[in-house]
Amino acid sequence: MRNVIASLAVVCTLAVSVRAAETEIHFGCGTQDAGVNIYTEGERVYFRLENPAGFQNFPIFSGTLTPRTMNMVEASLRDLKVFDVNIVVASWEKAQCKTGKNFLLQCRGAGKIEQPENSGLRTYGISTSIEHQENMDVSADVVRINWGIDTAENDYRHHYISFPFTQDRCWVR
Q1: DSSP alpha helices (H): ranges in 14-160?
Q2: Are 35 and 27 in contact (CB under 8 A)?
Q3: How many CB atoms lie under 10 A from the CB of residue 32?
Q4: φ and ψ at residue 155, rounded to 5 degrees
Q5: Residue boundaries of the structural domains of the chain
Q6: Quick check: 5 pLDDT over 80?
Q7: Among 152, 150, 147, residue whose Cα is nearest residue 163
Q8: pLDDT digits over 15-50, tens only?
């Protein structure tokens, strides 16, 4: 019943796509291993990952793994090692963000990686998507939090990572 009420609250709260500058955002998803919160504070939208296992539980690659993509995975292992911390925080100006129904959010443009400090990495966007997955035994809606992370310009690589959660593991305030 609580999940039904939470789902209705999400639909009512985020029913129409609006600029984040015009509204407050506070939703999150989590498991026993890690949790993500996305919220507004002042004139910024924050992404906060709480991950007690650090880098051992940090996604390093989203996509199909093939022999050709192994170089990207190896680069991710090196580049994203800086996230071997319990808390990761990134933010964007509210004006760069918009929200939609059912946990949908998009922030485009240069953001700031606030924790860990001096990471040497940059971020140019975060978005969420909802995917319906179904097989013969079960169906579920998955909320996917997608984050783009870039290395320095002189040795540029783009990393696209994603944090998937079944919708029953997500909430909105």
Answers
A1: 70-79
A2: no
A3: 7
A4: -140, 55
A5: 2-172
A6: no
A7: 147
A8: 334 455 567 899 999 999 999 999 999 999 999 999
